[in-house]
Amino acid sequence: MSQRRGSPRADMLPEIAAAVGFVSGLLRTRGCVSEQQLQVFSGALREALAEHYKHHWFPEKPFKGSGYRCIRINHKMDPIICKAASQIGLSLPQLYQLLPSELTLWVDPFEVSYRIGEDGSICVLYEATASKPVSSYGMLTCKNQMMLGRTSPSKNYMMAVSS
């Protein structure tokens, strides 16, 4: 953690690890995927996310590129999850059985959060302190846009996991 506060960070490993752990945990919960398959899936997803985000990671402006980094299942499977799942032989129908039909996972510098369902609560999986204050005043992020369009009030349940 001290390394984070001392200098600007360009790496995204803690955030990707949180996202990968969350998606792998969803697969583990169903009990249909072996631990060995989960390890292969996790490695493939970690590599795919790092490659996908490498030119879209801006620690100095964490909300920039937020929509691009958003992993979404909305009756259509996110292609990055499909790619990783194909490494362990999971088909698209199997993924639909194992994962929520409505899932949004935001992977941003210093924060990873998710929502299950269109009107579900947003829960924080990972949160770190930026090296300098980041102003979000006047910024409309992917996550904030979704919250503005909400038809029912958000429940104030929060789950935070940090390292």
From TrEMBL:
A GO biological-process term: negative regulation of cell population proliferation
Gene Ontology cellular component list: cytoplasm; nucleus
Every Anti-proliferative protein domain range: 53-73, 99-118
InterPro entries: Anti_prolifrtn, BTG, BTG-like_sf
Superkingdom of this protein's organism: Eukaryota
Family under the similarity heading: Belongs to the BTG family.
Name of protein: BTG2 protein
Gene: Btg2
